[in-house]
Amino acid sequence: MRRTVGIKIHDLNKLDSALLGMKAFFLLRPKNEFKERVENIMSEGAEEDEEDVRDDFSQGTIDLLAKRAGHTCSFPGCDVFTTGPHTQPNKALNQGTAAHIISASRKRGPRCDPSATPEQRKSIENGVWCCGTHGRLIDSDETSFPVSLLKQWKRDHEDKIRLKAEGRLVTRGMITSISITNLARFEETQRIDFGKKTILYGGASVGKTCTADMVAGLEDIERALRWRDAQFAKERPATISYEVFSSGLMRWRLNFGVETSVQCDDAFVPTIYSGFKVFYLRDVFVPSDVEFDETKYDDTQEEERDAAYTKISNRSLLDDLAKLTGVPREGFITAIQTLSRAPGDFWEHIKIDGENLSAKVGDGYINFRGLSSGEKQLVLLDIFMKLAEFSSRHAPTIFLLDHWAIRSLDDGNLANVLKKLGKLELPFQLIVVLGRIPPLFDRDGWTVFHLKGEGGAFSRSPVSVAAWTGVAD
Ligand SMILES: [Zn+2]
Fold first, then answer.
1. Cα–ligand 1 centroid distance for 427 (angstroms)
2. What is the model's pTM?
């Protein structure tokens, strides 16, 4: 049965050919034949319409999808720009495509779903932004590229673009947030959203070390497991939720309760396989030959320790330093040799001759053992920065710096070190844990969180975490 036909936008090609046909018939044929011919052409379209309907994206949806994808392909690892300069100065290149997740057509096409409504098919939720190549690829093989996979890609890609837009993404990846519930001094869930460079600060026993250990747990789960019996309320399990970004967004979850378990994106797994490298400079460096009780740290002990340094050999000093960094001795020496060719960030010149590690002071070099505590800490800081830089070329890397490792720096030096770190363009993520914010702190480049609670080792009151407002306390 024929019926009157409304012409849709996508039928414009048919309309064009119909009009051409009309023109030809108008010139050559009698009037009634012309009318019949036009009706035939238009009704062909109508019959096809009844058979199949395509629900294409509106231009507004296409534009929005491209913007949300940062005008880059969502295919994992592709990241090609879908827009750019054309050779003609008044034109821009466009090689992006709004690919349909479920087919635009009701009856055919890849990932076709006849039960979907037209609104669902043309909604932005049903689009994934791709380059031309990958747009064609995902439509050529619906078995390899099912709906769930494309939706996952889209989420991961938009997450990545969001982090980039916020200026938070570090070259190879980073931890974007951690939430801790019912552990140490954290009673209710406390969440920290990390930046490229983050300072966590708070007084004694407010959960700084616990948080730092959880971050370190991304590489070495034993660091995190040290806390497995430290629930705030013993009768309830504790959870630590991580969001980390490397090739995509991954969600890890540690559960401490009657049993300890690890989850990745809700599935139980044997351990954390994050692929992250964490350089954790957490303690006052003490050579193994020197007796030192960290819990009774005071200035007298520091003097004793410095005196004891003079009795140890270059060889055992190098061994201990390498152990501190977690890289093999040879690798440690390589890092110092690199530093000896170019100045470090905090120390003008460090060098190693045989097993003699020395640093430039004034016109000459002084053996590491002869440096003051603060000087030693700056040398170590430079070495760790170099190691993290090496690592970041191959793996997502976090440099975690605890206040114990820089505690000999006075307020002025600490403020200078933080200012410098805040300005450096680092290829890795930096997290610094501090007891307090030094006066004259320049917060430029930093995301700062304050762990607030009643201090003291015996306090049992809960701690809360909040973004720092900038008021020193
Ligand atoms: Zn692509």
1. 25
2. 0.75
